[in-house]
Amino acid sequence: MPDERIPGKLIGAIVAVGSLAFIGILTETVMTVLFPQLMREFNVDTATVQWITTIYLLVVAATMPLSSYLNRRFKHRTLFLAAVALAVLGSLIMIVGHAFPVILIARVIQGMGSGVATPLMINIILEQSPKSKVGRLMGVGSLVITVAPAIGPTVGGAVSSILPWRAIFVIVIPIILLVSLPVGLKCVEQHRPTEEARLNSLQFVSIVLALCGLVMFLNQAGVAVSAAVSGGSATVSAVFAVVSLIVGLGALLFFGWSSKRSFSPLIRLGWLRDPMVLLHLIAYMLLPIVGIGFGYVITNVAQLSLGISAFLSGALVLPGALIGAFFAPVGGMLYDRFGPVRPILGAFFAAICGPILLLVFSMRLTPVTLAGFYFIFGFGYSLGFSNIMTNALRNIAPQFMPDGNAVFNTCLQFGGAAGTALFSTILSVAQAGAGEEGGATFRHATAVGGSWTFATMIGIVAIAICCLIAAFRIGAKRNSRL
Fold this sequence. Notes:
Number of strands: 0
Distance between the termini: 21 Å
Order of helices and strands: HHHHHHHHHHHHHHHHHH
Number of helices: 18
Radius of gyration: 21 Å
Shape: globular
Strand content: under 5%
């Protein structure tokens, strides 16, 4: 295969569009490390404050099903400008907002911007990349996004130690307007014609209800369990959890049913009948539960169990996230050279060693071991994660790639939202009835919650690895028959 040249404008477009997703994830991880401070400022508990992260991820997940329609209906530059406007507006509201509901509204707006920008970047890569460079450019796209978790906790801890936390959003607005916007206006190009696609509003409402219902189920089930453990009343939360689960599953089933019968579905789902692609999708949804949830777990265990500052707890995430961000393009190059099996499975067999070591040492962790074991996970996770979607989308028809992109990115964001809700629930349950924050009993309870969390992470990654092994076996059998 010839060594095809990568256009400079394509790199510029990836950086410009990806930087908007970068800023959204940056502010998400910044807020995560500030949870203890925000709990005190807004007088909310652990289960409530995590909605600053969860609602952002949930809105991103709810926006991404629109990406297939948006990609067919509107020009790339129009979508880019919409993402810029939403990112700036959300940041302005974060600066002036002084009530918890207002902060949540700002996160909703920022989530909409990231929900437009992230699939736009991937569609640009898939449509405009030379075929021999798709893997490494998907890795570059992953790099643009994964650098944000690398520096987010450190930035949050550093800024909060010298400035009010709202200064973070004062900083990001000039970056958007002076860097992302001009680069995007120069480099974002349109290589395919738009279509007269129609928006199926009923299907959109159903998928939003499904995502909200399922995440609310996780959140309220956790609140109910936490209340029951601490001796409080869990009835209202338990009923709300059951209702949310019924609504979520019902809406999801309706979405699938109506998509099969619709002349112009919001997302075309026929390609999911391929079991190999479906198994890739399951793994791609499960792994962000751990990958995105890790930032919350590390920083909160560090502060609430080990008793270190917000700045240092954020710095603990930096080595693992930075090495992971660096190796994302390397993973793409390995994919281009060796194919999917060894680069993907080797990466995740390495990644699972991180939570295994964290579980083994969970009751005697130090800041150094916490950062070191996360480093192992971050290396393996970023080396293999973007290759899962790359390999899956290579196995579906080109006309369905925007639909596949929408589904994969929706599942990624839903997994992240579910992970934050799940792990905050586990920590809340462990902390229930353990006294005031900062006490020896509370610190021990948080360490116990951390061990439960690490065990859960191991199970999730193991299931994802099994799905990928099964998918590769199906692919090998197909190739043997050719």
